Amino acid sequence: MRAATRITGTALVFVLAALALPVAFGAPTVAAALDLNPPRTDGAAPSPRPVAHVAGRPTAVVVVGDRGAVVSDALAPYEVLAATGAFNVYAVAPSGRPVPLTGGLDLVPDLTFADLDRLLGGAAPDAVIVPALPDHGEPTSKPVTDWLRRQADGGSLLLGVCSGAGVLASAGLLDGRDATSHWLRLGGYEDRYPAVRWARGTRYVDDGDVITTGGILSGVDGTLRVVERLVGRDAAARAADVTGWPHYRPGTPASMPEAGLSPADAVTPVNSAFGWDRDTTGVLLTEGVGEIELASAFDTYGQSLAVRTVAVGGPAVRSRHGLTFVPRADPATAGLDRLVVPGARAADLRAADAYADLTPVYLHERPGFPFDGVLRDLARTTDVATATWTAKVLEYPTGHLDLVGPDWPWAVTLRPFALAALDVLAALGAARLTRSARGRAAPDLPGAVRREPVPA
């Protein structure tokens, strides 16, 4: 029995030793991949654009919390609404300080909640778009959920994009309703919010005064539904055309198979846990860049868990429809591995040629929906499996894309095995030294028979 226990204990020691280095290296990488870092702006925050308000137009707002939001959930609906030319569109937040969007992009809200209330004379906006917030369900999100309840009471049409449905559910605004969310979240939401009737395999669910969408880019479909509801199908069709969205289906969500995890999705834990030497990719902010063009860069690389992005550039920039963004670093001094440049306009103007030593990559030189160019670049610079997984998370079909690159991140995949082998070798060496030290330290016992070696 003692021998068996000793063998079991020894085996456990070696298993733990084999896991030590992979976990030590992998855990910080996972934390960094999931973290939504606060803005690193120095000095006074820049002012947002002067707010224009056209009487008679419906007002739509994209709400972001003080802890930020998922970048595509916020920016894609914003551009779809703005592209119609039929809305007053604003980014609003509890306070006016810059807020982080995922991937390292800092947004200066157009208005605070109090500013919006004064602008509308106490009336609720016609539509409120709710992206995924990193702190939903936590006390820090209470200013947003309290405000959402007031807008719902005031008659706003609510749109929960992706895990923005979780924000609405945490506010009690989905109880007794049909709703949907990102396929990765639905199982948890079914347990956490059982009063909601959660639907799968659809891009959006329209439940009257609340619309919810599937994952990330399904938010484009949900926003077009808002346009249909408040302005009309012709305006929605024009917005889909202007933004390059090819999946618009008037009056109904486009078909979407119910997603689930597959063996190929193992690329995700591989990249997140063991891609600790991820390249730092600077995303150059340029004046007049499209909001979806920006989102495509920060969200595609960020969702891949294989690339770290940081917004770089000079002073604050204004996007195509007037949002204010603040770069975090200067491209020349940020220690970048790569520099990418979102925006068809920036590609036409060769806006990054001053940084020729960084060999800038213009992501949107080719026509198409902005995410096309970034997914192609991701496949080429990492691997096709990572790009395919990322598109799946984004809920973006890739049948029309020519994704070319290595098949799989083999070098990253082999790292935990190499680290485990080093751990086991170190453990074996330590065990041998311990036994040797014990042998040297053992005293002669009285009456013990000393066994001399037998000559050959």
TrEMBL record:
Residues 1-26 form the signal peptide. It holds the Pfam family DJ-1_PfpI. Residues 67-217 form the DJ-1/PfpI domain. This is DJ-1/PfpI family protein. It comes from Saccharothrix hoggarensis. InterPro entries: Class_I_gatase-like, DJ-1/PfpI, INH-QAR. Keywords: Signal. PANTHER family: ARAC-FAMILY TRANSCRIPTIONAL REGULATOR, HTH-TYPE TRANSCRIPTIONAL REGULATOR RV1931C. The keyword Transmembrane helix does not apply.
